[in-house]
Amino acid sequence: xxxxxRVAIYDMDGTIVDSxxxxxxxxxxxxxxxxLNYWRENEPKAYDDSLLPLANQYKADLxxxxxxxxxxxxxxxxxxxxxxxxxxxxxPDYLISRPEGCTTSGGLLKIAGLAKFFNLNNFxxxxxxxxxxxxxxxxxxxxxxxxxxxxxxxxQGH
Length: 158
Fold this sequence. Notes:
The chain is of the alpha/beta class. The chain has helices at 36-41, 54-63, 79-89, 106-114, 135-145; strands at 6-10, 17-18, 25-28, 31-34, 50-51, 67-72, 94-96, 127-132, 148-151.
């Protein structure tokens, strides 16, 4: 394995993947948030998602032997999701996703999944960059690990 100089961490939805065709929000006493029931009902349509412009950089990072690529998503990964990643997006070096039934916040989920990389010798001295469309997740992860964050504006950043 080549020396890792960079670690690129990508959120999926709204960052490198457009899944708006199966996404909507609701407004209630908690404010505006993702309609999780609608999202879950439409999970079988994940293969119909499309790539966003940042996916080109993601694919270039995959091809760079000095870059370790991580997807950190709050999705529960099912067969259509894996098929999309395998066929259209490209497999990352590592993928963090939500376990079935898990209700942990997306920010904490991503922090827990990423924590081990900061203690591994292969990643000592590497530059870490996190690409995320949810400003709360971005701040939580970047503050926790003191890494660079890149906010990607989207209509899915709830």
